[in-house]
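Assemble and predict.
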Amino acid sequence: AQTVTQSQPEMSVQEAETVTLSCTYDTSESDYYLFWYKQPPSRQMILVIRQEAYKQQNATENRFSVNFQKAAKSFSLKISDSQLGDAAMYFCAYTNAGGTSYGKLTFGQGTILTVHP
Amino acid sequence: DTGVSQNPRHKITKRGQNVTFRCDPISEHNRLYWYRQTLGQGPEFLTYFQNEAQLEKSRLLSDRFSAERPKGSFSTLEIQRTEQGDSAMYLCASSLALGSGGSQYFGPGTRLTVL
């Protein structure tokens, strides 16, 4: 079974600075997808960024980018120019790219990000 | 497209009662997922549908839980004889079966409190 681990329960960053959230995962599959989701307080889960395991190039979405290290099974999220609206719980998630488990997400425990003005 | 919607947003019930939640996915999405999230934790997979077929159920989904997706459109999740341990946020998500890279879009959730 796949597992996802987020070892940082809480992180904080000053507005306009850069912060990196860590995630490691364990799988025996070679083809899979990794995601970062953002869940603001009392609000719904929002997809931030997706990475395909077969793509060596790290995904980027505006101020959000990932550092995907397949051999190390590491998938960190970098938030540049942090904004107050980035404050939320961030979840790392995994799914197989095929088979019956395709689409079934396994989530990490989450990292609470606080942004200080 | 208004996104994934869930009703009700909040449900308070007494132990032993039955409850039913509804999820309306994004209209063109043929996959629909249910997750359960307890406070401060990541969501846990419960079950998913492709069109009207329920393809996988987690061992977390006891016999008291049943989910349906008639005609491959909206889905309902029913919990019979609720227990206090069922108190959680129940999240619904939808996606395309192919071409979406597994990307799921979540609804706002239904928060269940069992007294």
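The two ends of chain A are 41 Å apart (CA to CA).
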